[in-house]
Model the fold of this input.
Amino acid sequence: MSEYKDDMYEFNGTVKSLIIIDEETGDGLAVNSEGYDYARYTAFLPKIFYFIQHELRMVVKEILELHEQERPINPFEITKNMSFVLGSSGDIIRLLNDEFEKLEANIYIEYDDIDFKIIDKNQEVKMEMFF
Done:
């Protein structure tokens, strides 16, 4: 919890929380520590994984369409209507790459603390997405 405490905050009426998901049931728990080392607020999110997975598939579809058209990818534009933000979460990137793999797409995403790169398996870096 303390590792992510700086990532949980409120900004302009939106609360950024951590979601912990049970991979067996798909249920989740939203946690907000408000900067403390322990959970101050929690909410049970039944079957949330399936909702997140659906939204991730929409993001993957849009990324693939832009990739095929060789158009730039703006992650803020892609996720503007989503209930989550890509941010620097390795878990979200892992889930996106899992979706690319299921679709046998020729691309994947690499990231570090500064930027995301869409890598074409047949080429070098295809596009970079900066946050």
The mean pLDDT is 79. Helices lie at 48-68, 75-78, 90-102.
